[in-house]
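A quick aside before the break. I want you to see a complete sequence-to-structure record at least once, exactly as it would be stored in a machine-readable document. Don't worry about memorizing anything.
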Amino acid sequence: MVRCRSERVELFERETEVAAPVEELFAWHERPGAFERLVPPFDPVTLLHREGDLQSGRVELKVRAPFRRKWVARHHSYVRHRQFIDTMERGPFRHWEHTHLFEPLREGRSLLRDRVEYVVPFGALGRALGGVENRVRQLFGYRHHVTRHDVEAHRRLRGKLRVAITGASGLIGSALTPFLTTGGHAVSRMVRRAPRSGEIEWSPTRHYVGPLEGHDAIVHLAGENVGALLRWSPARRRRIRESRIAGTRLLAEHLAAMVVPPRTLICASAIGWYGDRGDDTLDEGEPPGDDFFAEVVRDWEAACEPALAAGIRVVNLRFGIVLSPQGGALPRMLPPLFAPLGVGSVGGGQQWWSWIAMDDAVGAIHHALCDQRLRGPYNIVAGAVRQRDFATTVGQVLRRPAIIPLPRFAVSGAMGEMGRLLLLGSTRVSSERLAANGYRFRLPELEDALRHLLGRREFEA
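That is the input. The structure line, written in tokens, reads:
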């Protein structure tokens, strides 16, 4: 693209020190999944086509911001372990050239540096409207945070595994798969349709599981979305139970019958195990609650018993509210784009919500895969806050007051049992057991987690 002399070229640079050799940092960028790991959830990008590699490849994307259109970029100027460059050939900017630089440091550390030259769309008008510079800063703030923590996590937990994942296209699975492949692990997606290359078919309804020989571990994430609809009908309650319990039992029995089974089964679970427990602080030794979802979680975990009896290491990860703007609970908590006010307290707001950022949900699964000491249930939460404080923090991050109350009777009337359990229930969960077994939280504070996930980091002027 030819630039006019009058166009002002903006320069952005960011650098981050990483506790890993430059060879490992560079290899992370070359492996499958790096692109997916670097796309921020607050500015989603769709990969339309990719050919070649970082030496001489091209990518075609559909971008949403700052303008919804196609973006075509070419990779070139590749120097192994030192640099590669992406130049935009077609897209929303008049000019965009991104230089990725890698520098070795002492004591096995390295420096990641990104240098971007760009011309704001619409010239002086585009600069006057503003926003582009901040989005660039948010983008690279996110990318550097993810890259550093991913590379350092793979550095700490060495070894390459062959992992099969159910629910790989779900909210957590779609983040876990590229995380593992960028670390050098091999991933097989378990699907309920005709499998493509690298996939394995399985079907709980037909009681069928495809070949799993040669895999080191299974990560079982499949299950009906409990919050997809407004209410739980009797039919939906049955699907919630069957999707978790029957599928888990089928998988556990299949693994137990194998001559040489995978060594590890990581099974998703939920803090719904505990039920509504008020202000009590709950650890993994607490008995299950007595409501519908607590009974589902109890039977869900019990369905792993055949694998456990066969000597397979089983880890049940009791997830709290997983925060991601791409799905789950968080998008429903955010005010509409142009709404001046957001929902504040729900049912009085005194109930405890235990939460985990997507980055740590994925990180905890990786930790459970690689650390052979982990067995049995683990609470996967970074913290617990009262619902009213959660809403206030969301409002502060978005700079929109969260003051509209949602009374208890409105929640119960509109959502029935689902609303009473998921929104009004109080579950204050501790993750001390996970931390004591060596897991390092990336985002232990709610405000920092929301700013990271929503692209609202604060930068010095």
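Two observations worth writing down. The chain has two domains: 10-155, 160-454. The mean pLDDT is 92. We'll return to this after the break.
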